[in-house]
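User: Here's a chain of 341 residues. Predict its fold as C-alpha cells.
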Amino acid sequence: MTERRGILTAGSWCVDNNKSVPVWPLEDTMSTILELDRQGGGSGSNMAIDLKKLDPAFPVETMGVVGHDDDGRFLLSQCDAAGIDRHGLQTLPEGMTAFCDCFNALESGRRTHLYYPGVADALCPDHFDFSTTKARILHLGLPGAHRRMDDPWGDDTTGWATVLRAARQKGLQTNLELVSTTREKVRHFGRSCLPHLDLLIVNDYEIGAVADVETRDGNGTLPPRIVEALRKVLALGPLTLAAVHFPEGAIAMNRDGGVFTVGSAQLPTQEIAGVNGAGDAFAAGFLYFWHEGYPIGEALRFGHATAAASMRAVSTTTGVVSAGETLALAERWGFRPPPLV
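Assistant: Prediction complete.
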C-alpha cells in the first residue's frame, strides 16, 4: 500500500449542460435560459477534475465509458487538459455519451437534473481492470445511474459490489459515492456495497437511508441521529471511516467509534452561484487530505472549504481552486461552530 499513490475515479462520466434560468417554470409555461455552460459531469469526472485543480501534480486515474460522439471526445479532451490518466476510460462505438441537462433556478437556488444515460447503461464490471493501476484509493459511483451495474452480477446483489470486491483484492482502498434517490434504492445499493468498502463519504440523507435512521426533520439535519446512523453503518462492514456532510457541518466516525465534528465554511451568501457538485467537491477535498495523511478533523474542514469554493460557480468544478487558494479562502470566510452531537 505504501508504494501506491493517487486516486482512481471510476464509474459515472457524462456531459453536464448547465443552464441558468430565472425561475423553474410550471408545466405548459416558459422560462428563459440566461446562461449556458458545458462541462464534464458525474462522479468520475467531478472527482478527477477537482483533484487536479486542488493539486495538478497529484496522480489521478479514471475508468468508465463514453460514446463515440462529440460529447465523448469533449470528455476525453477534458482529461487530457487536466493531466488525468484516462487509459481506463473506454469509448463504446454504439450509443451516445451520457448527458445531463442541469437547470439552476436563480430565484430559489435549487437545481433540477434531466439525465439521459446513453452508453452509461452498458457499463458493467467487465469494464474495470485494476491489474495495472498505481492508485491507492478507488472512488466509485454512481449506483442508480447505470442499469447493468445496478443489477445483480454473479453472486453479488449488484455490479457495484463486484467491482469493489475486485478493487480490494488488488490492494486498493475503496470509497463509494451514492446519489440521493429513494430511501429504498439508497439502502439497497449502500448495503450491497458495505462489505467491500474501506471509506464512505455521503450526505445526511444518504447515511440515514443506508442505516434506516431518520437524520432530518422539518428543521434540518439532526446531528445526534447522524452519529447513531454512523454506528449502525460501521457495524455492517469493514469500514475504516465514514464521513457525513451537510450544509452546517460534517461528522465522521472511525473504526474505534471515535467521533469527529466540524462546522462548514461560512461562504458569504452573495458569493453562492449554485450548489451543483458541492458534494463531489467535499469528497475530493476530504480524500485529498486523507490520502496525504492529515488528521480527520482537518480533512473534514478542508472538504467543506473545497465544497464552499465550488459553490461560487454554477457548474460542478469551475469554482474549485488550488489547495493553497482553498485554505486562504477558508481562512477569510471562517467556519461555523461544530454541530452538537
